[in-house]
Design brief:
Length: 450
């Protein structure tokens, strides 16, 4: 029997020797990413309501005349670019007059992208764009990550990943035009554009989970065997380990049974990640996003289509010119305006498909759908492409994840978009006094949302 008077350090070495190899693996096993629990060990109380945020991005501005409704309030008519949302009219909220007022370094596209979700200036840097000054990364965290961090801080709302960043045809080039999510100052997050890579991230550890349950079963036996051979001091430590292992095993088994109702989507094999397959990769990513939400892998996600200055060619729409190039043509070229409207209608169609899939997917354990607890926000780095304006940034909200009054078209008088970002945080119960540049937050959250 181990002598209780021996130094604690020696007792722990002896403790590990008595337990054998499996105990040596215990710290490693219990810290694998696949064991990031959604709640406290032992099953803490569940939150009263799940809330989710999905931010969808498409680039290069919109055609205002075919995008924004003429009427304010509930009696509005969808213009062509937004008609795919007609089915979800009662769950849609359009915010006209919300402006990105962030100044400083960088060209219009760079500030449009890098400040879109951060609401704060870019650092000085050596990335040159357009005719403006060069710039670097954003100076602050993005609102999606701020909300994810808030949710991850509480055991009842903690999820395996916290947030997921999906991409569709996002360039592998890392610069201010290609990144909108930031974990903090100078910390851009790269979206995953390859659906197969995202699938592996989400589901690649499922076999490991089953194996880990088996290992934990074995550890329980080891604990019992060694428990009678150690000092009282070490037995107390051993009991702590055993308690945690029992909780870990229960959590694994419980989460496994939950995920049986949220099977991984089946992805078509061999879809290339190129321009011509953009519609297919879009739908694959949407299916993965919806499945990840149902499985409660994360409650915050972004879905980024290309990037600022994105040059996708929408050949499936009969458009052979690159998107950004078209967006710089003058308004007088009606054929180009028609093509840009087609492009934004297509993006809206992908939004509508995402919303439809959320609406028809059950919220586990309830009679609700995922859309009942999800706020989708569709946005852009510019209000209009050929002027590079960041006034009237498109913000279209769909879903019922927050307590906003939906089914309306609102028009503001050039309010800073920081106030909307604050409103999103407040909707999650995260009552920030400001977000991003505090000078743009003095009037508080946006009025008339709730």
């Amino acid at each position: 029997m181990i002598n209780a008077s021996r130094p604690r350090r020696h007792s722990r070495r002896q403790f590990l020797r008595d337990l054998g190899a499996r105990a040596a693996l215990l710290p490693f096993i219990l810290n694998l990413p696949s064991l990031a629990f959604a709640g406290e060990p032992g099953g803490a109380g569940k939150p009263r309501r799940k809330q989710r945020l999905v931010v969808m991005f498409s680039p290069n501005g919109v055609v205002p005349g075919t995008f924004w409704p003429d009427a304010v309030g509930k009696e509005f008519t969808f213009k062509e670019s937004l008609r795919p949302l007609e089915e979800f009219r009662a769950r849609t909220l359009m915010l006209h007059g919300v402006c990105n007022k962030i100044k400083g370094d960088g060209d219009g596209h760079m500030r449009g992208m890098g400040c879109l979700l951060t609401g704060i200036e870019l650092f000085p840097g050596n990335i040159q764009g357009g005719s403006d000054t060069p710039a670097g990364w954003s100076r602050g965290i993005s609102i999606d990550q701020e909300i994810a961090k808030f949710l991850q801080a509480e055991p009842a709302t903690r999820t395996r990943f916290g947030s997921l960043e999906f991409g569709v045809q996002v360039s592998e080039r890392a610069d201010t035009w290609t990144r909108m999510s930031y974990a903090g100052p100078n910390q851009p997050l790269a979206p995953i554009s390859n659906p197969y890579q995202m699938f592996a991230k989400l589901y690649g550890e499922q076999k490991d989970r089953a194996a880990l349950i088996s290992v934990l079963d074995d550890l329980q036996g080891d604990f019992k065997k060694v428990g009678g051979q150690v000092s009282a001091e070490d037995r107390a430590l051993l009991d702590q380990h055993a308690t945690f292992v029992r909780a870990a095993e229960k959590e694994l088994k419980d989460s496994g049974s939950t995920r049986q109702t949220a099977q991984p989507p089946t992805l078509e094999a061999g879809v290339r990640e190129d321009n011509e397959h953009m519609p297919k990769t879009s739908r694959m990513q949407i299916e993965l996003l919806v499945a990840s939400m149902q499985a409660d892998f994360a409650r915050v996600a972004t879905l980024q289509y290309t990037q600022s200055v994105g040059q996708a060619k929408m050949t499936w729409l009969g458009i052979n010119e690159a998107h950004h190039t078209l967006s710089h043509e003058p308004d007088a070229k009606q054929d180009v305006q028609d093509q840009l409207t087609k492009i934004n209608t297509w993006f809206c169609g992908e939004l509508a498909y995402l919303v439809k899939r959320l609406a028809e997917t059950p919220e586990p354990g309830t009679k609700q759908s995922l859309l009942d607890n999800t706020q989708v926000v569709w946005t852009n780095e510019l209000g209009k492409g050929n002027s590079h304006t960041r006034d009237d940034i498109p913000f279209v909200l769909v879903g019922n994840g927050l307590d906003f009054k939906m089914g309306r078209s609102l028009k503001y008088e050039k309010v800073p978009h920081n106030r909307l970002l604050m409103s999103l945080a407040h909707g999650f119960g995260h009552h920030l006094g400001s977000f991003g540049n505090a000078d743009h937050c003095k009037d508080g959250v946006l009025p008339d949302l709730v």
